[in-house]
Amino acid sequence: MDTQPSTRTPDGGEPAVRLDTITKRFGDVVANDRVDLTLERGTIHALLGENGSGKTTLMSVLYGLYDHDEGTVSVNGERTDFDSPRDAMDAGIGMIHQHFQLIPPMTVLQNIVLGHEPTERGLVNDAAARDDIIDICDRYGFDVDEYLDTPVGQLDLGAQQRVEIVKSLYRGADILILDEPTAVLTPQEVDSLLAVMDDLRADGRSLIFITHKLDEALEISDEITVLRDGESVGTVEATGATEQELARMMVGREVLFDRLDREGEPGEPVLRADQLRIDSDRGREQVRGVDLTVRAGEIFGVAGVQGNGQTELVEALTGLRPVTSGEVHLHDEEITELRRRKRIEAGVAYIPEDRQREGLVEDYSLVRNAVLGNQTLDPFASRGVLNWGTVADHAADIITEYDVQPPNASTTAHSLSGGNQQKFIVGREIGHDPDVMVAAHPTRGVDIGSIEFIHNRLIELREEGMAILVVSSKLDEIQKLSDRVAVMYEGEFVAVVDPESVTDEQLGLLMAGAAREVDDYRDATLAAGSDSSQPDTSAAEETTAAATDENPTAGGRS
Amino acid sequence: MSTDDRGRLRTLLDRAADWLLDATVLERLAIAVASTLLAIAIGLVIVAAAGFDPIRFASQLLIGAIGSERAILRTLRNSVLFVLAGVAVAVAFRAGVFNIGVQGQFIVGGFATVVSIIWLAAFVPTGAVGGMILLVFGTLVGIVAGGLYGALPGVLKAYGDANEIITTIMLNFIAIGFVGWLVAGPFSDPDATATRTRRLPANVELPQLVFSDPNLSIVGLAVTLVTVVAVAALLTRTSFGYDMVTSGYQAAAATYSGVDAKRMIVLTMTLSGMIAGLTGAVFVIMIQGYFTDPSGIGNYGFDAIAVSLLAANNPIGVLPAGMLFGGLDSAGSHIQINSDVPVQLIDGIVGLVVLFVSAPELFRMTAKRTGLGGDSE
């Protein structure tokens, strides 16, 4: 087996990969809309975009996992059309998936050679493979050869990722696609990964680096292509680009709609959180001391680039995730420990971020979906018995009022388009007359008409006195809807601003973390421990900025 | 296997999964009937190849199942157990929990019923009233014991992340071994030649109103029907049932809707075990009258998995599916006596039916779990 990148031709000017007007549809949803991307040989090309912007889909087209509907793929100057990842691998493309494709109980060596075992008279010849792998490791300074006989499951995630990279190199990959490789890593591991990527580039290999982290894209890549809603917003040279510019490209600046008129002043506080600290599933602190207050008749917006703790915050507020410290209050009652069902019953409605996984049961009819989350609430159930007649009427009402297509309550949720699924969820969540509505990305992947509809409905609810918290990474949406906007960065509210007077530049800066003037903040908080009640000046500053009644001045601090 | 072959196989699997996942209830019913007929047809070929008369075998199969009043009663009696145990399996499968331990819960429930009745018999009057008290008490004890034995792997799964398939299989062995030891030792009947417990008191007997078979009572049938209807209503008409079924369909959506996933696993396993325990109670009260060595008791709890799969885990569907198995079982014992076809061959053919009828639904469930079926997401 040849482990060297054998097909690397002397630089003939042909790019390693050229994607030309790639379009990929899933049913009615256009996941990639005429996307161009050129990966020059011996460079790192970052593919930047929010979740759901089509990054992974585009790379899956290149890697032969999906057929594309339009456009062409060229590798090393040759038109190709891969039927399977196997074809892509044969052409020298390797992909490091976000979820590692490793078998935990098998050793590192076994994992690396899996499917490409060097054999001798039908028997696997480990020794030959071992030497090849050690060669690769020496070349790039990997430590993988030190634990070739350890089961993969015993390695930490950073080491597992290096095994994945070695596996691709062992298979002769000349072009590497790294799908969100830093998402699971600690800051130190990120640094060493970036160093490895740099070495690979120096060796003449070409890398595509999928990420939604601006600083990493700027630090390591040569060129950056930004995707938004399946379209390429543009490609820029990393040198000379700024985080602020990239942030705006990612979240979009064209204002589709004007800010909606609103009447009435906010009333009493309804939902309140004090000094919330929340861990991710992996035990990393994702929310670091957030205070917020949402009043009756107010839309409180949370802006920020995805992955800065918004998901964890929303899950903690809705009762799906425990907090490590801090308190949540609904009206005057503390609900920090209240289970999800009790919170629903207490009046907390939730439009979830992932509607297909959480918000709907795909195989259920709309009637059955109309009671999801409300299955214990009057009038849909009394004393534990469901009243399907009432539920069916409810489903029919939602369909009529929210113009759900097709207007058939017995159709499965699966057969609805994303926009119609979302309208149905919005209708259902409003239907049980909650006090608080937590809406996470309420219009992601939704068609323009439905966006308008959902926005208007949220404003109406505001006017009726509901307390609404909207999380979105779309700036225009946040500005259009919110009465106040908190900008979230690295688990904190770095500022609370007035959506009408804040400028694009200010928001861009805040979202890129520019409000944080104390560079060694992380060290400071680590030193101070998890409690926030220390007199450290940096933390005090953060707390002030995060105070909910703060006037919108924090944006101008830098 | 070459890459091409693998790709083709995958495409074929995807297509089959697509088709099965999209099948309507009627199509699935047709699949079940076709599977049964196909299995029997292949079985007949094997019978012929072994040198026996397949036509005679086929007619014996029919006669043994429904050919006489005795055969029908025997079929009904078997069906009671298959249906009840099938419902126990179906409840768990519907909630996405794979309770393979119905056999063990059935054994523990049945044994607990016998022991508790014999114990309490000393304190209640003989006669009909006392018999009624013993019946109800013993049945409740059986249900509770089965429920607890089912709750155990539920707790292990929910709070210890232990795979319920493995733990329930192991708990089956433990139930067989431990109850077997109790039956042979501390609870054995010193006067009996066989290894068994003492008999239930004579007043513990279900009324013989309709059937001439002493081991089949209308009460047993009624309990079965009530259980089927009650479980079906629970799943389709209650908030709790909605929680359960939603957990089975889409766990993340269930959590979103306020279901505590861990608690739901424990409750599901408990409920499944309770029904298995009820099956055990019915078995000892209506049929056996004492408890024997559990290793030779009949694999109702295992066959119930096939029953449930054949019924697509629908409690109402378990009724015909359980009766099919009851009929096959009944025919098997008839053929064993009335023909020279060896018992192993009969068992093999019944096994073939089990395999054929469970395969489509098993494939369906696996396809769902593993995401086969191509573009279905």
Question: How are the secondary structure elements laid out?
Answer:
The complex is a heterodimer of chains A (558) and B (377).
Chain A lengths: L16 E10 L2 E11 L4 E5 L6 H8 L7 E6 L2 E3 L4 H6 L2 E4 L11 H6 L5 E2 L2 E2 L1 H15 L16 H14 L4 E5 L7 H16 L3 E6 L2 H7 L2 E6 L2 E7 L5 H9 L17 E11 L5 E11 L2 E6 L6 H9 L6 E6 L2 E2 L5 H7 L1 E4 L3 H5 L6 H4 L11 E2 L2 E2 L1 H14 L16 H14 L4 E5 L7 H16 L3 E5 L3 H7 L2 E6 L2 E6 L6 H8 L9 H8 L8 H10 L12
Parallel strand pairs in A: 3-10, 3-11, 6-9, 9-10, 15-22, 15-23, 18-21, 21-22
Antiparallel strand pairs in A: 1-2, 1-4, 4-5, 7-8, 11-12, 13-14, 13-16, 16-17, 19-20, 23-24
Helix pairs in contact in A: 8-17, 13-14, 14-15
Chain B lengths: L2 H20 L2 H25 L4 H13 L2 H26 L7 H20 L6 H33 L3 H21 L33 H20 L1 H11 L1 H6 L4 H28 L11 H11 L4 H24 L4 H28 L7
Helix pairs in contact in B: 1-14, 2-3, 2-14, 3-4, 3-13, 4-8, 4-11, 4-12, 4-13, 5-6, 5-7, 5-11, 5-12, 6-7, 6-11, 8-9, 8-13, 12-13, 12-14, 13-14
What features would you highlight for this structure?
heterodimer, A: 558 residues, alpha/beta, Rossmann fold, six-stranded mixed β-sheet, 19 helices, 33% helix, disordered C terminus, B: 377 residues, mainly alpha, 14 helices
Can you give a write-up of this model?
The complex is a heterodimer of chains A (558) and B (377). With 558 residues, chain A is α/β, with parallel strands linked by helices. Chain A has 19 helices and 24 strands. The longest helix of chain A has 16 residues. In chain B, helix 4 packs parallel to helix 8, helix 4 crosses helix 13 and helix 13 packs antiparallel against helix 14. Chain B is globular. The C terminus of chain B is likely disordered. Chains A and B meet through helix 10, helix 11 and strand 20 of A and helix 9 and helix 10 of B.
